[in-house]
Amino acid sequence: MILIELFLTFLKIGAFTFGGGYAMLPLIQSEVERHQWLTQEELVNFIAVSESTPGPLAVNMATFVGIRTGGILGALCATFGVILPSFIIILIVAKCFEKFRKSKAVSGIMNGLKPAVIGMIASSFLSVGITVFFSDGFKTDIFSEIQFWISFSIFLLSTILAFKKVHPIAIIVLSAVIGIIAGYGFNFA
Hints:
globular; single chain
C-alpha cells in the first residue's frame, strides 16, 4: 500500500508543480507532513542533502522520502512518480514544438506561471528559513545564541557569493567547511 501511496503522491507533485524543484518544495512539504513520513527537521535535512547531491532537487527528495518510507522499492516508486509527468509533457512538447512555438495561448500561460513559481519558491524559502532559524518557535533570545549568528553568517556569505557569481560548488563546500568548523568549535553539530 505504501508503494502505491508514494507513487501517487509524487505523481501528483510532479504533475501539479511547474518551475523545478524549488517550486515543488511547498507541495512536497505539505504531502510529507500530511502523510507523516518525515518531521519538519528531517525534511529540512533531506532538502540540504538533496541540494548537495547530484541530480534534480525533486528527484532527490522523492528518492530520499521513498527510501525512508518504503525502502528501495519505495524510492523507485516515488522517483518514477515525480518524473513521469515531466517525461510525458516533454514528449508531447517535443512532438508539437513547432505548432506551439508561436502560440499566444502558450505564451500567456507561461507568463501567468512565472509569478506563481516565484511565489512558491519564496514560500519554500520562508518555510525552510523558519525551520532552520526558529525551529523552537520565534523567541527573541535566539539572537543571543552563537548558532543563530553562525547560521545567519553562512546564509549571508552564501548569498553574497552567489550574487558575485562564485561557482555554486565552491559556495556549498565553503558553507559545509564553515558549518563543520563551527559545529566542532561550539559543540552544536
